[in-house]
Amino acid sequence: MIPTFASLTFPRPTEASLDEGFGAVLSLLDAGDLAGALARFDTERRTLESWASLAYLRFSQDTTDETAKAERDYADKIGPKATAHEVAIKKRLLNDVDRSALVNLVGPHVTKLWESDVTTFDTRIEAALEEEARLSGEYTALLAAARITIGDATVNLSGLAPWLENPDRAVRYEAEAARWTFFAENGAKLDDLYDRLVKLRHGMATTLGFDTYTPLGYRRMRRVDYGPTEVARFRDDVRTHVTPLVARILEDRRAEMGWDAVRYWDENFIDALGNPKPAGDYDLLIARAQTMFDRMSGGLGPFFRDMVDGGYLDLKNRDGKAGGGFCTSFPNVGMPFIFANFNGTHGDINVFTHEMGHAYQNWRSRDLHGVDELWPTMEAAEINSMGLEFLTWPHMELMVEDGAADRFRRMHLIGSLSFLPYGVCVDHFQHEIFTNPDMTPAQRHALWRDLEKQYMPWRDYGDLSYPAAGGRWQAQGHIYKSPFYYIDYTLALCCAMQIWLLSRRDEAAATTAYEDLCARGGSAAFTALIAEAGLISPFTPGALADVVREAAQFFDTPGMED
């Protein structure tokens, strides 16, 4: 029986309860009971993760709730202490236990993850980790508190989306101007926040024996099968294969619309008839989504019904709610939770199907051996989310306004391709930042603008002075809160678009490959998971070429297949 979300409660950890719970693991190891120790270790971690997930989710649901904020602050404070226990036990398991016995019980992949994990923490950085979490929360709260006046309305940043996609070019410009006025007014605070985060992370890295934060950041992302060299090569592939295609798509749009140039406020206005809107209100979309998932093979239909009935969705935008969308989970109950901000645009469908992909993978993986396998590393996890975006294409008639399904599919593909240059730009920016942590705010802004010109040479901000001077990156929360995460979306998109290619030839085979990938969860590293799924690694030279060629043919744009 699945408990309802409203009924969920998990024991609040204290330093004493952490000592007791993890101490029991050590006692079992002292007694020579490796299997028992590993089982207790897994139980303690599941319980702790379930509580922390709920604490951070409650804060995201209402950043103005002082009780929720206090609980999030407490989670920030207790988190490093829990990590200290976990790392100490992992070190003992890796150093004192027969390695073959350990590998036999937890598997080679989890063993490698633990080998990486133990290099990312020391009690000397506990206070820094707590401060990092606090500063990240400050960024979230600052953006959630934004109130943007547009026309006769006052909205938050998420609620601004309908104006940013308005068919009237003047309205789009007005919305962008209002958005960047907020960032300009808070620019000094955002620069200071990021400066403190960069220096804090660099300090943690040097304390742990690294020259810069980059290798520590990769290990915190649990990347055990590739490094910055492979990622840099992939960024070059995007610039070589994808940037020219997107530039041609935008030039075609400029000519079609009769614009003198494509300005920044035009980039997301993809369809001359207006970007397709959702089929109706929230209740209609949920009902239509149930029909869509029931039509698809596998367990998506029953799973989604359980999510709705159990209250494991929070999709409506409202004041005080954190921006963006994400999926979290509660390992103790085997159910994920989807958080989003519906705003009446096509983005509602993209975000919903994306987060549903995450949720479905986590649910399919719920019975894997240990907590480390419930989620794959993030670049693999994003294949599950983006893959579902593409696999729902045949059912878009249900989800978008009448007669707009083909337009939605075209828009989704253009949006996916356009995202790749931006995504790798974010990653390149972070590599440069952490190589040179003493950059001034002005230098960071200049760096961003230079990289935009490399990856997105079409970008023209007109008279929007703040982003034109290099401030666009401050709206990307991952840069503040999750360093080096963003490249995962682009690596995964390279793989998800291969699923799209397969689905255009054999929808059943693509669905089976997707279901199998979800079921494997985090049982292997990224490159191993995609190899098992029959996908080409993004790190293989030319991996994007077939996708770009198929996309060009899909658009039937002359010259794009070169």
What does this structure look like?
By secondary structure, the protein is mainly alpha-helical. The longest helix has about 30 residues, at about 65-95. Mean pLDDT is about 95; it is low at about 555-560. The protein has 24 helices and 5 strands. The strands form 2 sheets. A 3-stranded mixed sheet has the order 3-5-4, sandwiched between helices. It has a two-stranded antiparallel sheet with strand order 1-2. A hairpin with a 4-residue loop joins strand 4 (about 325-330) and strand 5. Among the domains are: about 5-130; about 220-275 and about 385-560, Neurolysin, domain 3.
Question: What's the short version?
Answer:
The protein is mainly alpha-helical and about 550 residues long. Helix content is about 65%, strand content about 5%.
Key phrases:
64% helix, 24 helices, 562 residues, three-stranded mixed sheet, Neurolysin, domain 3, single chain, two-stranded antiparallel ribbon
How do the strands and helices of this protein lay out in sequence?
Layout: H1 15-30, H2 34-61, H3 66-96, H4 99-106, H5 108-117, H6 126-144, E1 148-150, E2 153-155, H7 161-164, H8 169-185, H9 187-207, H10 213-220, H11 228-257, H12 282-295, H13 300-310, E3 313-316, E4 326-330, E5 335-342, H14 347-364, H15 378-391, H16 396-399, H17 405-435, H18 441-455, H19 465-471, H20 477-481, H21 487-505, H22 507-520, H23 526-532, H24 545-555
Parallel strand pairs: 3-5
Antiparallel strand pairs: 1-2, 4-5
Helix pairs in contact: 1-2, 1-3, 2-3, 3-5, 3-6, 4-5, 6-9, 9-10, 11-17, 12-13, 14-15, 14-22, 15-21, 15-22, 17-18, 17-21, 18-19, 21-22
